Amino acid sequence: MIRPEDAPQAFADAWNAHDMAALGALFHDDATFVNRFATFTRGRDAIVALHRGIHETVYRDSTLTNEPIEVRPLGEDAAIVQFWSRLATGPAHPAGPHQVDTLLLLVLTRRGGAWAIQAGENVTLSNPRTGEPVLRG
Predict the structure, then answer these.
(1) Which of 83, 49, 62 is nearest to 17 (CA)?
(2) Which of 24, 58, 96, 129 is exposed most, by the fewest CB atoms within 10 A?
(3) What is the reported pLDDT for 12?
């Protein structure tokens, strides 16, 4: 990524290609990530492993569309990036084709001139009374 603003599209591109090497390249070696099921992972290899399993099975025919919300610089070498994400599953998912909306928050840092994800968290939009997933308007 050349700049933090590139993160939402770069994440979607790697996801949609189901390219785990490209996904891993978005993260620093010592990055952390929390997926939408609250699974905490530490390290690029663990983050890739977490995603590899789902991309080989239930999400192998899924697509992701991201909509940037905000990029907030934290000095010259760090930024917070927030974006909406819509996951569209395909027939490979046990529940069949459906959509899920999430909100991602990423902390990007620049090391040696290169931007990468230092930390990320993905939150599923849901009805707080029922727990049922909801889609944005």
Answers:
(1) 62
(2) 129
(3) 98
